[in-house]
Amino acid sequence: QVQLVESGGGLVQAGGSLRLSCAASGRSFSNAFVGWFRQAPGKEREFVAAISWSGGRTYNTYYADSAKGRFTISRDNAKNTVYLQMNSLKPEDTAVYYCAAAGSYIGPTYYAPNAYDYWGQGTQVTVSS
Questions:
Q1: Count of alpha carbons within 13 angstroms of residue 30, beta-carbon side
Q2: Of these four, 3, 72, 85, 99, which has the most CB atoms within 10 Å of its CB?
């Protein structure tokens, strides 16, 4: 069983930055797909970014169009933690952000919430205009 705990959310003005953390316990997920999703009130959960292991010390990263150029996903395997650095935040980024981990290879379905097996409780990000 894997437990994921997000932290780092908060209130920030438009143009500001936040770094979200997703700490895993229960097993190492150094070679697992880990994704960040978000859900705003009244909207479906949507993909933000994901990171996978492609061998050695190489990882692949994937981003939603809304996140490209502003958000960066990274991981620190020694800490069993994945990060989401969010810069140039906009009011439309306001949502609860969730991290998720897949128990097996998910390949091209990295953007689909139902491809992931483990979820954190979420952390609120609010961007004021």
A1: 10
A2: 99
CB atoms within 10 A of CB 3: 13
Number of H helices, E strands in the chain: 0, 11
Single-letter code of the amino acid located at 122: G
6 close to 21: Cβ distance less than 8 angstroms:
yes
Residue with tokens 């981003």, as numbered in its chain: 63
Tell which residue, 37, 31, 12, 11, has the closest CA to residue 121.
37
Question: Which of the four pLDDT bands, split at 50, 70 and 90, describes residue 55?
Answer: low
pLDDT category at 63 given cuts 50, 70, 90 is: very high
Residue the block writes with tokens 């070679």? 31
